[in-house]
Amino acid sequence: MKKKLLVSLSLIAILLSSCQTKLENSSSSINSSLESSSTSSSTSLESSNISSVISSSSTSSSTSSSTSLKGQVVILDTIEHGQVSIKGYESGSYFEIGTTIYLEVQADINYELTSLTVNDVSIKDSLSFKIEEVMTYFIDAKFTKKKEEAKVGTISFTNLNNGSLNLSLDNLVLDNLEVSSVYSSNCFCDDESSFDEFRLSVSKSGGNVTFNFADEITVSKVEIDMRQYHEDNSLVTVSLSSSSLSQNYQDNVFEFDNEVTSSLQISSSAKNRVIISNIYIYFEEEEIVPTPAYIDVNPIEFGKVSISPSSNWMLGDTITIKAIPDEGYYLSSLTLNGQVGKYISLNTYSFKLKEVNNIVDASFKLKGQSQNDFSYLYANTAIFPDRGNQNVDIDSYYEPIRGLKGEELKKGLHEIIDDHVEFSYDDLGQSDWEYVDEDPFNSNNFYVTYQGSTPKGYKVNKEHTWAKSHGNFGESKPAGSDLHNLRGAYTSLNSTRGNLDFGEVEHNSLTSVMKYSWASDDMEGNYVDHSSYFEPKDEFKGDVARIIFYMATRYEGDGEPQLEVGGQIDETKYYNFTYNASGLHGNFADLYKWATSDIDPVSDYEVSRNNRVDQDYQHNRNPFIDHPEFIIMIYDKSYSGPGALNE
């Protein structure tokens, strides 16, 4: 009996031990499962990386559960010139993974969509994307201003007569383009041309035609209808303001990199003749947004300025500023925002308003304050005398006349400028004028005497400023082909001037002294008295006087003409060197005034021309451009100041 009871108790103990082990294992399994669950939840939250867009750590576990498997779509608020929206939803909304998002895009007027991205991946073509993982999807877009299609302007030709052509606006048929002027050289209408086409250049010389536009345009392409002439190569060059392209007539499309230009020139060289009919210009007009401009005048002493128009200025307008010196003073400088304007007449310049805020500066100086103050004789501000690669610099060039004055100074200058390199009159032509007389501020233009800055291609002939009959040297070397004396001139104006002396005339159309009816406005200001004098416009009075005094100094006989300035010479005031002269040019009184007053001071153009004749042609200079005060030192009997070069 006891034995059975003992066995039963043992069995119960074993059963209890087994139950305890199972309970412990079960508890361990439950804890392990809970820990695993906690870790998994933490990992899921970390990997989502959307803590900034889902909820803060205080958000309830039920909210966390609802967003943890969704992506958020946010449209950036930095988008300009257009709008982007989520079709049917607001920015910042959440979407289930696998959802396709559709976007709507609206550009502002005159703008277009150029970029649409989601997290820097382009979706511009589809305007849609799919939510593929739990993250924030940032939408960005860029809208840019629409680029207008290039306009096409056409230049055609009409009423072309047989023979040599001097093209005018009357010969142009314009479509969608405004041309203000046209100049041509060596253009012909012959048997192989019809009334609406012309031949460019000849076998011995090149030709060109230049069109000046009313406003600046941006050119991307020029296309020309042209054909070969006989067996010529017909190589053609198209030039804009700052670039040129040369191509065979068959390659008739000239591509440019959207260049801003105010002119178009078409040219061909000798033996490259070509027939031209229609010209197509692909361009964009510079957009001008109406913007008020403002002008302030810095404080001025000893004079004043007047501005026309006087008010209501707009950006892009052209204004005229006239400087008015007080009695006894002269204009030393006139600038707008530090820039020199375009010369119109004495003390009058034009400027284009390129900035909203503009400052006018004017400086006036006292005339004759001391006898060695000749600053008023100079107006050049950018181009300065330079001998380039010559043997001696500009200072050493004039060293032999240091301290001289009167007749000694005149003879000393003659020794310096004598025996220059000589050129044949026939060898000098259009290309020489376009180089020597190039406008230093606009390389597309050159100066035509008695007129002014003119687009290259404008055909000129040779004007002897010192008329060749005043000394009977004709066209022979050296006097007849001296480049300091020769200038390019418009044919009819040159003929009108003829061999007249220079002097001032009465500007009265009711008398025999009359204002001539000139061919174009840029010739206005020149006056002619056919019985005595030709008076150039103010812009050229100083130029002409300095040339005449150069010729009277350069040519002193000894196998060459002996030239002197003649006319009215008050010998109580001035030295007279005319007694043994073989050729005279005057009138001295007017020429001396033009050369030694502020009517037309030495200009940048004159200095540039003097440099080029010296460096590239004759290797001598016009000393009265470098030192206009030398004229006073030579001719004025009352001059008691220092000699040349202030010695």
Looking at this protein, list some descriptive labels.
11 helices; 647 residues; alpha+beta; 37 strands; eleven-stranded antiparallel β-sheet; disordered N terminus
Overview of this structure, please?
A hairpin with an 8-residue loop joins strand 13 and strand 14. The chain has 647 residues and is an alpha+beta fold. Strands 9, 10, 11, 12, 13, 14, 15, 16, 17, 18 and 19 form an eleven-stranded antiparallel sheet that branches. It has a five-stranded mixed sheet with strand order 3-1-8-5-6, with no helix packed on it. Helix 4 (406-417) packs across helix 11 (629-635). Residues 1-66 and 510-514 have low confidence and may be disordered. It is elongated, with a radius of gyration of 43 Å. The termini are far apart. It is built from eleven helices and 37 strands.
Radius of gyration: 43 Å
Distance between the termini: 158 Å
Number-wise, the strands total: 37
Tally the helices: 11
Main beta sheet: strand number and arrangement? 11 strands, antiparallel
Spatial shape: elongated
Compact overview of the structure:
The protein is of the alpha+beta class and 647 residues long. 21% of the residues lie in helices and 33% in strands. Helix 4 packs across helix 11 and helix 7 (538-554) packs across helix 8 (588-596).
Which secondary structure elements does this structure contain, and how are they paired or packed?
Elements: H1 2-48, H2 61-67, E1 70-75, E2 82-86, E3 94-96, E4 100-107, E5 111-118, E6 121-122, E7 128-130, E8 136-145, E9 151-157, E10 163-165, E11 172-175, E12 179-185, E13 187-189, E14 198-200, E15 207-228, E16 235-239, E17 244-248, E18 253-268, E19 274-285, E20 294-297, E21 303-308, E22 318-325, E23 329-336, E24 339-340, E25 342-345, E26 348-352, E27 357-366, H3 394-397, H4 406-417, H5 430-436, E28 438-439, E29 442-448, E30 452-455, E31 461-464, E32 486-489, H6 491-497, E33 501-502, E34 527-528, E35 533-535, H7 538-554, E36 563-565, E37 583-585, H8 588-596, H9 604-618, H10 623-626, H11 629-635
Helix pairs in contact: 4-11, 7-8
